[in-house]
Design a protein that fits this description.
With 318 residues, the chain is α+β, with helices and mostly antiparallel strands. The protein has helices at 56-68, 107-114, 140-149, 168-183, 185-190, 195-215, 229-248, 260-270, 281-291, and strands at residues 13-15, 21-23, 47-51, 75-78, 126-129, 134-137.
Length: 318
């Protein structure tokens, strides 16, 4: 999600010719493989996640870690919710942690320790190998697939699988639709620097939400009756939508609460065992409203809205 730069914070992306937000590619793309085909075999206690509770991409990895039962297998450090000029940093306040691997103050220093001379974008999540002191991967879509399949020998819930072979096509189709229009769509709205770019992203976002509302009127989850990768990838955006994106990113045509099926679906997922503890609304709101000074210059965090994801949803009867 977020980056630090040696000059200023601009998120993990650049601005295109029309003022549109353009997300950049992650840097570290190695894989942990149980078949021994890479330099990173799965081991209990060897790997570590650097995350931000605020970041939807990092939230995915925390959900997978919890639902697979990998809490005792993969350790975690949490950066502070606020980004300063130096980027993501560590402390032990408000649910954040210190860096237990290197004792560094900033996540950039972890990147530099892993890759001397590194001068790229510093993002979360990070999957780190404590044995070789190297970053394995910082692309969330790949990290969650490693957590899903490569650590089953150590997982408390190895039978939980978010990408069953028979649903791969449906999951990929959902991901390909949701990512540009919804997951990244809210950022395309919020970080647009021209009216044209904003309106294009806005129209696409709410057309996608309308389509998802219709899909979820017929099915409990996006690919049927079980939670899949597509649901988790969508959920992390939906749970941030009403508290942050409606106001902060000007995504204000409708709230998720105005969509009966999307709202019940969000509550359903939130109440799934393991998911709620990964959602830290204090970190989420304080990060967005305080860190994005180009949008919210005074860094004032709104007290509302009150959003209760523990309300009955009725989706279990579908």
């Amino acid at each position: 999600m977020g980056e630090d730069s040696k000059e200023s914070y601009t998120l993990k992306g650049t601005t295109g010719a029309k003022g549109e937000f353009v997300r950049v590619t992650s840097t570290f793309r190695d894989w942990i493989k149980a078949d021994g085909s890479t330099d990173f075999p799965p081991e209990a206690g060897r790997y570590h996640l650097y995350v931000s509770y605020a970041c939807p991409w990092a939230n995915r990895t925390l959900i997978y870690r919890a639902m697979k039962g990998l809490e005792d297998v993969i350790s975690v450090n949490v950066v502070n919710h606020q980004l300063f000029a130096g980027g993501w940093h560590f402390d032990a306040s408000d649910g954040s942690t210190e860096d237990e691997i290197f004792g560094k103050q900033r996540l950039r220093e972890v990147y530099e320790a892993s890759s001397p001379g590194f001068d790229g974008r510093v993002t979360v999540p990070v999957l780190f190998d404590k044995k070789t002191k190297r970053i394995v991967n910082n692309e969330s879509s790949e990290i969650i697939r490693m957590l899903d399949t490569e650590f089953n020998a150590f997982a408390k819930h190895p039978d939980v699988h978010f990408r069953p072979e028979e649903l791969c096509a449906r999951i990929d189709e959902a991901n390909d639709f949701i990512y540009p229009s919804v997951n990244n769509g809210v950022y395309r709205c919020g970080f647009a620097t021209t009216q044209e770019a904003y309106e294009e992203a806005f129209v696409e976002l709410f057309a996608a939400l309308d389509k998802l509302e219709e899909i979820l009127s017929k099915s409990r989850y996006l690919a049927g009756n079980s939670i899949t990768e597509a649901d988790i990838r969508l959920f992390v955006t939906l749970v941030r939508f009403d508290p942050v994106y409606v106001c902060h990113f000007k995504c204000n045509q409708k709230r998720i609460r105005d969509y009966p099926n999307l709202w019940a679906y969000t509550c359903d997922l939130y109440q799934t065992p393991g998911i709620a503890p990964t959602v830290n609304m204090f970190h989420i709101k304080n990060h967005y409203f305080k860190s994005h000074t180009m949008i919210n210059g005074y860094g004032i965090v709104p007290l509302g809205p009150e959003v209760d994801y523990t309300l009955p949803h009725g989706r279990e009867n579908m």
